[in-house]
Amino acid sequence: MAIVNNIFLRKVRLKDARILVHWLNDKRNTRYMSPLVRCHRHTLRSVRKEIKNVDPFYERLFMVYVKGQEEPIGHAGIDDIFFEDKRGEIFFLIGGRENWGKGYGREIVNALLRYGFKRLHLNSLSATAAVDNIASIKILKKGGFKKIGIRREYNYINDRFVDEIMYDLTAKEYLKRVKNGK
């Protein structure tokens, strides 16, 4: 479990499948996510299967909670983990729109960074965001991620091709930010 300020992350469990199905089938939540998420209909059965088949050498999946609340507000994780290269990629989703715009995204990213760098001892974490996903871009920048490139016309969203921005952050950069109180 990773705790940062007002939120904490808990490992995904089978009982989380029902709320994940709801969030993953809400196009407003997933419109900028991977085609594996945004282009498929998710069922209780398919999500439970995903949870059962989590490979801890490849991914760490979490539910996001606000301290003092019983229901999760989101889903996040680190996937594409390669311990040989000490790298992974973060993702996050705030499920209920009533929780959008409250600063939880930045806290989620901070919790993932702490987990990835301090617990998993990774050296590099990456993230991507569609150019239209202004909220995620702001969150990643505030978290210290650096833009490293653009995949041009990489995603097909809302009947048009959209560029995807690639970001990364190294352990050295992260530790410097933590030392400086950012």
- Percentage of residues in helical conformation: 25-40%
Subunit arrangement of the protein: single chain
Query: What's the rounded overall pLDDT mean?
Result: 93
What about the largest sheet? Answer: 8 strands, mixed
Overall 3D shape: globular
Distance between the termini: 21 Å
Number of strands: 8
Name the structural class. Answer: alpha+beta
- Give the uncertain stretches in residue-range form: none
Q: Give me the number of helical elements.
A: 7
Task: Give an account of the 3D structure.
- The protein is of the alpha+beta class and 182 residues long.
- 32% of the residues lie in helices and 34% in strands.
- It has seven helices and eight strands.
- Strands 1-2-3-4-5-6-8-7 form an eight-stranded mixed beta sheet.
- Strand 3 and strand 4 form a beta hairpin.
- The longest helix is centred in the middle third of the chain and has 16 residues, at 104-119.
- The radius of gyration is 16 Å and the shape is globular.
- The two termini are 21 Å apart.
